[in-house]
Write a structure and sequence with these properties.
238 residues; Rossmann fold; two-stranded parallel sheet; 17% strand; globular
Length: 238
């Protein structure tokens, strides 16, 4: 297994339930981290708690292309290369079709598919220069198996899965690895605004979800875990 210590890692969505636990694990393992999110005060508190310098913190809405350009500039001013890109951000809008608005649909596409596209355009060239790197996205299990009320969410996550599989084909002559992790229900703030009856106590904890990503950061250079599926032992829907 590869060592995390000394690796330069970009974590998108660092202040979320999974992201904040992941930052702690990676920091304790000796990674050099750069963290992003929408809430600057939460980011700065997370950075302070994990000895991350303020120069390695970026707050902004990454659905804006110019914001992603600014993120790229600040990242490479802070860390001169990128070893691992982890996208732990996402938006869940779970509604039946008759309640789903065009705005809901497009917001899902922008956050869950457009942002990963912009991130790959911004950071993949640097990996291509060194012909190595690791990219981890979280399509979620609804990027494999849809469910009632997940038309917008599944559309965005199926798109993410397909996009990353296609990009993987472009990278076959390099040592750049792409891993998609398909998680079932994770007990995180993701569910706070979703009107769906679920048993959150039966979900994967955010800590365990973060540990799975932390493990994936250590996969050997001679192989790749293309996909990981992590689901609750028992079904959590009511």
């Amino acid at each position: 297994m590869e060592q995390i210590k000394g690796k330069k890692i970009l974590v998108i969505g660092a202040t979320g339930g999974i992201g904040s636990n992941l930052v702690k694990l990676l920091s304790n393992s000796g990674a050099q981290l750069f963290i992003t999110g929408r809430n600057e005060s939460k980011l700065l508190a997370l950075a302070q708690a994990n000895n991350i310098p303020s120069t390695a913190v970026f707050a902004g809405d990454l659905t804006n292309e110019k914001t992603v350009d600014a993120l790229k500039e600040k990242y490479f001013n802070s860390l001169q290369q990128i070893d691992v890109l982890i996208n732990a951000s996402g938006l869940g809008i779970i509604k039946k079709l008759e309640s789903l608005t065009p705005e809901d649909f497009m917001k899902s596409i922008h956050v869950n598919l457009w942002v990963p596209f912009l991130l790959m355009k911004a950071f993949l060239p640097a990996m291509k220069e060194t012909k190595k790197g690791l990219v981890i996205h979280i399509p979620g299990v609804l990027g494999k198996v849809p469910m009632l009320g997940a038309a917008a969410y599944s559309a965005s996550k199926y798109g993410l899965n397909g996009m990353m599989q296609s990009i993987r084909e472009e990278l076959k002559r390099t040592d750049i690895r792409i891993t998609n992790i398909f998680m079932g229900g994770v007990d995180s703030p993701f569910w706070d605004t979703i009107e769906l009856s679920v048993q959150r106590e039966k979900m994967i904890t955010a800590e365990e979800a973060a540990k799975a990503i932390w493990f994936l950061c250590q996969q050997p250079t001679s192989a790749v875990i293309s996909e990981m599926v992590l689901q609750p032992f028992n079904h959590q829907a009511i």
